[in-house]
Amino acid sequence: MSDTPGMAVFYWFYEWNMFDAVAPGQHTQGTFHSSRTISPDRTQAVLELPGLRLSVGVVLDGAELQLRVANNTAHAWPALAGIIPCLSPGRLESAARTPAASTFYHVPLNTQLADPDRQRTYFLARQGLLPLTSRDIHFCEHLRATVDRASDQGRFVFTSKWPTSEVNAVAGLLIRESMDGQWVTGVGWEDFLSVQGHNPWNCLHACVRVGPLAPGQTKTIRGKLYLLRGSRSDCLQRFRKDFPSQR
Fold first, then answer.
1. Are 137 and 198 in contact (CB under 8 A)?
2. DSSP count for the chain of H helices, then E strands
3. With bands split at pLDDT 50, 70 and 90, how would you rate the model's confidence at 212?
4. What is the Cα–Cα distance from 20 to 31, expressed in whole angstroms?
5. Which are the contacts of 230, defined by CB distance < 8 A and separation ≥ 6?
6. Per-residue pLDDT tens digits for 24-66
7. pLDDT for 160-174, tens place per residue?
8. Is 26 exposed, middle or buried (0-12, 13-18, 19+ CB in 10 A)?
9. Is the distance from CB of 19 to CB of 78 less than 8 angstroms?
10. d(Cα 63, Cα 65) in Å, to the nearest integer?
């Protein structure tokens, strides 16, 4: 927010592959090494990686995202294939002093958007907005049966760090309220595999579903970053307006 010094978020694109997206395997490493082009007025940006092109356009309440995905591999990506960008809405001062955190954060982030006691972060379940209080992964409700079939008696290679929650998500939305309740930020995607957060840097993971996608095929998925004055209810209302198919 140009009129509010320090009110910034960091979107790392992207950190992980899920279920054979890009590389074979349930859970493989992504990358943040991309070419980046920013318009002279700083209202548009494009990030490009092999097979992935993310277009970003600034709007009053955040940034519009458009992800173009091409399967340039020799294997078909299944319905569960996804990629995980990482949204860091804020950091704690103690974390900021660690070497790893210094490398991770490339812009100053507002500590007001951190969530030290894990009581200000929310995901959307059938019951409504619920606090995201642990590192458990919440899978998309309508994909849950497929997810369970892909598991080894309920376990995955990532289960030790991301246990599977019994509570499913019904939208690809994660929301963080500021400590003073005056601001809200978040990320939403029109097609998603899971939501998860509270890793060491207080970050949020909304996994973008990029499958199914056969070799040589492409698809485009819309998303949005939110950063505005308001509450979690305000952010949810914006998301429902932006993505009516996820009502």
1. no
2. 4, 15
3. very high
4. 15
5. 183, 184
6. 999 999 988 889 999 999 999 999 999 999 999 999 999 999 9
7. 999 999 999 999 999
8. middle
9. yes
10. 6
- DSSP annotation of 140 reads B
Distances (CA, A) of 162 to 78, 178, 199: 21, 25, 9
| Domain residue extents for the chain | 10-246
The backbone torsions φ and ψ at residue 54, rounded to the nearest 5 degrees and listed phi first, read -105, 120
Question: Are the C-beta atoms of residues 62 and 43 closer than 8 Å to each other?
Answer: no
* pLDDT score of 90: 83
Question: DSSP readout, 8-60?
Answer: --EEEEEEEEETTSSSSSSEEE-----EEEE-TTSSEEEEEETTEEEEEEEET
Residue 243 CA: distances (Å) to CA of 66, 116, 150, 217, 222: 13, 30, 28, 24, 9
What pLDDT shows up at residue 164?
Answer: 98
Evaluate if residue 176 carries a pLDDT over 50: yes
CATH of domain 10-246: 2.70.98
For strands 204-209 and 128-131, give the pairing: unpaired
Asked whether the beta carbons of 36 and 44 are under 8 A apart, the reply is no
d(CA 135, CA 20) in angstroms, rounded, equals: 22
Ranking 101-115, 135-149, 150-164, 202-216 by mean pLDDT, the lowest is 101-115
Structure tokens at 151: 């598991």
